[in-house]
Amino acid sequence: MTILDSETKATEHSDDHGDELRLWLRLLTCTTLIEGEVRSRLRERFDVTLPRFDLMAQLDKAPDGMTLSDVSKRMMVSNGNITGLVERLVQSGHVDRRTSEVDRRVQVIRLTKSGRVEFRKMAAEHEIWIAEMFSDLGEKDVRELMRLLGKTKLSVRKAADGRVG
Amino acid sequence: MTILDSETKATEHSDDHGDELRLWLRLLTCTTLIEGEVRSRLRERFDVTLPRFDLMAQLDKAPDGMTLSDVSKRMMVSNGNITGLVERLVQSGHVDRRTSEVDRRVQVIRLTKSGRVEFRKMAAEHEIWIAEMFSDLGEKDVRELMRLLGKTKLSVRKAADGRVG
DNA sequence: CAAAATTACTTTAAGCATAAAATAATTGGA
DNA sequence: TCCAATTATTTTATGCTTAAAGTAATTTTG
Description:
The structure is a homodimer of 165-residue chains. With 165 residues, chain A is mainly α. The first copy, chain A, has helices at residues 2-7, 18-46, 50-60, 68-75, 79-91, 113-133, 139-163; strands at residues 66-67, 95-99, 107-111.
């Protein structure tokens, strides 16, 4: 019977999900390690937090500015969160915020000149840190990991969307 | 000269780190997606947060209990964080906390009987959710991803340790 | 043995994050 | 036109997270 069951893979899914669980934990560990390292280096080197760095990275790609909603979607975080984050970046002089002329509900934010200069410095080092952390992986590994994570992303989205929409 | 430069790979590292950066962003996206999905399902189905679930998962593996420091190390979060998390789980009746008889600095925590029963239910569903999210990946993909992430983990640790210890 | 160092935990202050409710501006019909 | 629905953002309440400082118990050491 045991043999028979283990052969009955035709039924789409096996009931042993241990491998996927271990994969998820390993994925999480990698992300947590890298993120923690980036956070502490950003803090040490530039006295900046990761959320602020991420927000500035979005703005750096949008010379004409972005609305808070745009930022919120791109960063995959809540609206209310962005409000506070932007407020702190305005205080520190990295970001400029103004109300849109055409739609007074909308806030358009941009990097200030000095904010942009500072960000570029951070980004340059950041890129080196990341490369260093992945340096034991060969070109082929990087390509293959990229491919498998792309596949994972699609799979997760499918499972997530299937539940709501 | 351009050709010459691009051939000068003998100098260990190239200066283009774009691939690694893209890889990191994709890794982060995958983790964020999965984590977000798990968070919202835990909340909907069991009215529990991910940190509480994670803490209970640690305790489930330690029938004789753990000290707060143990938990802190295992979960890779700060001590102060654990204090608050445990306090809330004690309030909700999932966790039992007592001062060690042999060392009165030490707090030993365990799942309560009902906490364990509840956690096992959550864990069973959680495992299915994860398997579902990875379901587009074949066995070979899972194995390969596992291998590459293992390599990544080592690489990151090396880069991180190299900086401090 | 007593002072100093270490260990375990808690508290504090600040920031990040969310969901849900509130506010304010704009748009789309009837 | 006007008012209902929608959209953009802010506010509120709650919880997670950290680093740093504080407290208390134990261990080390002179």
